[in-house]
Write a structure and sequence with these properties.
- It is a single chain.
- By secondary structure, the protein is α/β, with parallel strands linked by helices.
- It has a single domain (2-195), classed as 2-Layer Sandwich (Nucleotidyltransferase, domain 5).
- Helices cover 41% and strands 17% of the residues.
- The protein has a 6-stranded mixed β-sheet with strand order 1-4-3-2-5-6.
- The protein is globular.
Length: 206
Amino acid sequence: MQTHLYTYDLPEDVLFSESVAIDTETMGLCVHRDRLCLMQFGAGDGNCYLVHFPQAQYNKSPNICKILKSDQILKIFHYGRFDIAVIAISFGIFPRNVYCTKIASKLVRTFTDRHSLKSLCYDLLGIEISKQSQSSDWGSSVLSQEQISYAGTDVLYLHNLKEKLDILLAREKRMDIAKACFEFLPYRVAIDIWAGETYDIFAHKT
């Protein structure tokens, strides 16, 4: 893995033609309270690009916004419901053309409740990844080497996981429902931001 660290934005020469793996690190798990501190981008070729936000200044990221707005680039997430919400609140952008490995796993790996990134990497790729730095202070002005290594790993394997999960989705004839879920995901996030994650528009109650 080759990890490249930048501040506030990606360089103009970092381009993604067809797809990009994306992850976010925040101060916590409340998207209205906890600011975005780091974004990770993976090209699927072993290169990971990290963008650090020492302060909540998201108007300095035109190249990131261009990627997020592009309908031509597939954005691959793991638990995209959270990452898309963070992106929407930070940049005012709801990314389209998205894929979520957690949703795909829940649709086809119904024999297990193990759908974390760590579990998917181990079960589908035979790779053990560490989540030790997940709950560290991402708001620090200087990231530790452990944080940098951890953050890169979070996007390193998403392309490979998508390939494995696509095979299972095709085998179980659930690709169409997966695509429908992915298309709905930005709208589900908009509802989360508007009414909260516990608000269920499909619930049969008054």
